[in-house]
Amino acid sequence: MKTFLNRIVRICLAIFIAAQFIYGQQTKDNVTTHSFQAIDTLLKNPGKGWMPFDGKPKTVSRFPASVSYMRFDWGDLEPKRATYRWEIIDSLIAAYKAKGITFAFRVMATDPQARSKAASPQWLFDLGCRSFEYASGGSGTFQGGDSIKRIEPDYADPIFLSEHETFISELGKRYNGDPNIEFVDIGSYGIWGEWHTSHPADMKTRKRIVDMYINAFKKTRLVMMGADPEALAYAVSRGTGIRRDGVGSLWDIKAWSDTNKYPRSLVDEVWKKAPVVFEWYGYYSYLSHCDHCSFDAGFQFLLDNHVTYINDNIGHVPDSIFSRLRVLGEKSGYRFLLNEISNDDDIRLGDKLSVRMSWSNVGVAPLYQEHYLSLSLIDVNGKIVLSQQLRHSIKQWLPGNYRIDERLLIPATLPPGKYAIGVAMVNAKTHQADIRFPLNALEKNGIYSVSSVTIR
User: Fold this and answer.
1) Tens of pLDDT, residues 238-257
2) How far is the C-alpha of 235 from the C-alpha of 187, rounded, in Å?
3) Same-domain check for residues 250 and 111
4) Which residues does residue 412 pair with via DSSP β-bridges, in sequence order?
5) Using one digit for the tens of pLDDT, what is the confidence trace for 373-397?
6) How far from 279 is each of 50, 250, 286, CA to CA, in Å?
7) Which has more confidence, 21 or 235?
């Protein structure tokens, strides 16, 4: 069976090289030009898109996903002082890793949906940490859990700050730099760790909580919750991305549009260097009936604010809406399209092959991971006989158009013949061609055969 499949691959590649079936192929003055149109497909690409929000991976996901997400109560992860249950996180990392999906998470010190009265561990309060009672419950998406009196720690209490700093430090020792961790929310403060509370702490305290994460996760991407403009500005100044929960709430959109709280210099610049993460205000069934909600406004808000990751917490949607969720999956983060490639049609051994390409990033944000462009020559057997890393930094490609001119030296030892020209975007750390293009071209292991050349 394997031999048969290999023969099929070789036949397909030979047909490509012989027939040059790429869209818009032209040859003039010894220059071959191929032009492309994007195909409508939702791709599983690293570092972007819809994030499953489940306690375990589903057998079938409605969207291709490269990142998953979950939240944890501090008390569950450290039920006894200095006794850590990392297996809670590790089991999810392993389960999603088996599906080729990285993991992102938040730790909460206050959770209205906690199984007990407090999301922080009981031993913290037994040590004397001050606390506040608050009521939560009901059916609205902004409320959750049983209608009971719950406990929120006093974030400025020295006991809370000391013990939580120790916990975040240990969390960093465990997961900082782990390639399976996509990003970590700077949570810990406020309801759901979203940085809004009826018992606010002073700015010195809030900065200290931000610094706990900055110091613990120097090699892992961090995103800062957006409900506290002052703390957000501080975190962003230290290199974090932004996260905002509540998409679809007109109240939230109005708050985000307040330039006195969120200066455009902050909101309009951070996405160019660090990711923006969003979560829906609730299920679509709620958004469609809520008097201060709008799915349409939320849809446009995501695109206008350069979303890279979206929590898939919107629930079931009608067929008429599902296509728009696909659009969000395509547009979120980067989406690279090869528009055109031109190259020498015929070249001699020992000469340099001129290759010119026109690319577009038709997504709403850049790629935040280190990748590089690679060009390859592929023989009729599908074997890569030459590969060259290009000097261009894809990481700097904001939404827009880009032109690339390159020259590949053809070794004199290469057998004469006709070769396919392959293009790929390669992860600088893993050296895997892990980015897919919406391109109707022969692809194998992330390398797309997009043109051809005859070598004499």
Assistant:
1) 999 999 999 999 999 999 99
2) 12
3) yes
4) none
5) 999 999 999 999 999 999 888 988 9
6) 10, 14, 14
7) 235
Give the tokens for residue 441: 């071209």
Token digits of residue 393: 């930094």
Same domain, 362 and 294: no
CA distance from start to end of the chain: 35
The C-alpha angle 140, 144, 146, rounded to 5 degrees, equals 120
- The count of residues in the chain is 456
3-class state of residue 384 by DSSP: strand
CA 320 – CA 230 distance, rounded (Å): 40
Q: Determine the structural domain holding residue 141 and report its residue range.
A: 49-331
Least Cα distance to 15 among 321, 420, 433 occurs for 420
Half-sphere exposure of 341 (CA within 13 A, CB side): 26
Q: State the pTM of this model.
A: 0.91
Task: Please give the structure tokens belonging to residue 61.
Answer: 């996901």
| CB atoms near residue 118 (< 10 Å) | 20
Residue 276 parent element (H or E):
strand 276-280
The fraction of the chain above a pLDDT of 70, given in percent, is: 91
Residues 6+ apart with CB under 8 A from 316: 283, 284, 285
Q: Where are the beta strands (DSSP E) in 312-399?
A: 336-344, 346-347, 352-361, 371-378, 384-393
Which of 357, 446, 347, 337 lies closest to 34 in space, CA to CA? Answer: 357
Amino acid, res. 221: R
- State pLDDT tens for residues 26-78: 666 799 999 998 999 999 999 999 999 887 787 677 899 999 999 999 999 99
Task: List the structure tokens of 3.
Answer: 């031999």
- 441 and 451 Cβ atoms separated by less than 8 Å: no
Tally of domains within the chain:
2
Gap between the Cα atoms of 285 and 293, Å rounded: 11
Q: Which two tokens stand for residue 449?
A: 């055969």
Please indicate, yes or no, whether residues 35 and 128 belong to a single structural domain of this protein: no
- Sequence letter at residue 316: H
